[in-house]
Amino acid sequence: MRIALFVTCLADTMFPAAAKATVQLLERLGHEVVFPPGQTCCGQMHINTGYQREALPLIRRHVRTFAPYDVVVAPSGSCVGSVRHQHAMVARSAGDEGLAARAEDVAGRTYELSELLVDVLGVEDVGAYYPHRVTYHPTCHSLRMIRVGDKPQRLLRQVRGLELVELPAADQCCGFGGTFALKNADTSTAMLADKMRHVLDTGAEVCTAGDSSCLMHIGGGLSRLDAGVRTVHLAEILAATEEL
Amino acid sequence: MSTFLGMPTTAPRGVGNLRGDEPFPAAARKALGNDQLRRNLGHATATIRAKSGAVIGELPDWQELRAAGSALKAATMARLPELLVELEEKVTAAGGVVHWAADANEANAIVTDLVRQTGQRRVIKVKSMATQEIGLNEALEAAGIEPVETDLAELIVQLGHDKPSHILVPAIHRNRAEIREIFLREMPGVDPALTDEPVILAGAARRYLRETFLSTPVAVSGANFAVAETGTLVVLESEGNGRMCLTLPETLITVMGIEKLVPTWQDLEVFLQLLPRASTGERMNPYTSMWTGVTPGDGPQNFHLVLLDNGRTAVLADEVGRQALHCIRCSACLNVCPVYERTGGHAYGSVYPGPIGAVLSPQLTGVEDNASLPYASSLCGACFDACPVKIDIPSILVHLRNEHVRARKRPTPESIAMAAAAYTMDHPRLYTAAQHAAKLSKYAGRRLPPPLNGWTASRDAPKPPPETFRDWWAKR
């Protein structure tokens, strides 16, 4: 299958390992990955901070960039959530029905990584090997906005060598929330403290999730404490093999 | 409101207890520093969540009920003016008197006058968000009338000279040791040997209140629902104090927001299933009182209904935000909110805290008066999933943030940065250059400059990678 990668601006700029892993994983499974070069950012940060007008050209760009592809994948539940639940809404509020319709069309063909693997490609065992004790944090937007359910855990359970331990109070927000982490830094930190406590309680070496943004927050907190637990994107675990 | 010539071009904004003294982040900072508050809230919200989750799980048709509740509310709002007139007609025909209050001040004046006309100096009160919203207790006290709260938690708040911090459990921020201290200090005639056992504390309140119930002939209540087709008012409570207030006095004055209507009696079937399970985690509400006007020889012989706008018409005019008026005040969104669980209700300033408060208060007052509230959320979506009438709170928050940004007259550092970021991201060559600038940045690790220092106060910043994804891709 020919799959267009929507890399997301954060993975592109700060966490390329998650994006590279997405490419390597899909290629290993026998698919062709293309990277439409005009892509930048889906505009979620602007939309969620109140700047819908500023987000409009970014939505237009995203829709134009990905319209030619049958299947689009992103290593982020949050950015896929914005594409599915916000792009058409913002276009419609701006009175651009044509853009809204095209945005809905693209959104219907856009998948978060675990959705693509399980729902579209029909695989749960991706042939990965990752000999570590891992806990999975379901990010809010993957859980409640696009509802990936237990697809990430189903994929992780098939990874050889991996011991998956359940995260207590897993469905509680880690406190990232985009610009919330800056505008309400104290509350965000209080939420992070509880999330880190739960992660540490599992005794896991690795905390994984489907969003680099939440992992940047959780990982930044764990790093500040020198807690000895690292954050790794789901794609990197699924891309890992004995050969690498 | 439709007076000719003097007709206002926009609906009036809400006044009363809807505004805080300081923005949410500052108030939250103080609350986060209160360890006892954090423990009390964490314990209480976890307990209610578990209880509510269990009884909701028993219903195979919970999602259908939510959809029905949402649809009924939307249909009601679509013809609210005619339904309100129908309610007025039915209440009047049944012997009640209907008053219309454009805002909190008018409502307070109406209620104060009505109490004065009875010649009484004291009223008993059923727990009510509408009267908290308008600050009725303060208004009555200013007129020399003593209001006595009869809901146990509301009484704790009143005796503690405190403010409610939760819609349903207004003293959720207090534990039983603190409640014992408040009773010992403030409750007339309390037994000095009072312990902090819940049954002993409740007994003390009961003795104090029983005397008040029997000797006070005027009561003030709110309403959970009003049925337009019959003129019936409905109050749900779980202590029996409401039943006392609604049946014993000679005069009953009910203050109700204009959005509390349901068109028909049958519509209650849906809400009486949704509300107890979503709020207190009960299968059936313990005390459900319903009354229609005045029944000669039975119950209050004088009934007044005060219909309160206080900004609601302005909310109704907003296509996205109007669903906040569907709220049935169950508090499920508070109990699941990770922000509320840590900051408590007082940080929100308004009497309406938590996620619903963050969308309701700024709409009632105009967003400029509660500008920090739409941002008091990580947009995690737990509130939307928990809401028994499916109010899409995250979408309203995003909408209100946009309203707030658009209403600003002058550019701010944030708006300039946002515009620059959007411009950069719409020009791939600039975007690539910016990525490389980030890569070369000396800022990484433990301290970033403003405005990013809020990040590094508690989290390390990630180290920029040696090459971006698109650089790697281009070299493949």
Describe the 3D structure.
The complex is a heterodimer of chains A (244) and B (476). In chain A, 52% of the residues lie in helices and 11% in strands. With 244 residues, chain A is of the alpha/beta class. Chain A folds into 2 domains: 2-120, no CATH class; 133-239, 3-Layer(aba) Sandwich (Rossmann fold), CATH 3.40.50. In chain A, the strands form 2 sheets. Chain A has a 4-stranded parallel beta sheet with strand order 2-1-3-4, sandwiched between helices. In chain A, strand 7 (206-209), helix 13 (212-224) and strand 8 form a beta-alpha-beta unit. The relative contact order of chain A is 0.15. Chain B is an alpha/beta fold and 476 residues long. Chain B has 2 domains: 35-312, Rossmann fold (3-Layer(aba) Sandwich); 415-471, no CATH class. In chain B, strands 1-10-7-4-2-3 form a 6-stranded parallel beta sheet, with helices on both faces. In chain B, strands 8-5-6-9 form a 4-stranded mixed beta sheet. Chain B is globular, with a radius of gyration of 25 Å. Classes of the chains: A alpha/beta (244), B alpha/beta (476). At the A-B interface, helix 1, helix 2, helix 3, helix 4 and helix 9 of A face helix 1, helix 15, helix 17, helix 18 and helix 19 of B.
**Terminus-to-terminus distance of chain B:** 69 Å
| CATH homology-level superfamily of the largest domain in chain B | NagB/RpiA/CoA transferase-like
| Broad shape of chain A | globular
Mean pLDDT of chain A: 97
What count of domains describes the coordinates of chain A?
2
The gyration radius over C-alpha positions of chain A equals 18 Å
Task: Average the pLDDT over all residues of chain B and give the rounded result.
Answer: 94
| Number of domain units of chain B | 2
Largest sheet of chain B: 6 strands, parallel
Cα Rg of chain B: 25 Å
Low-confidence stretches of chain B: none
Largest inter-chain contact set:
A-B, 67 and 61 residues
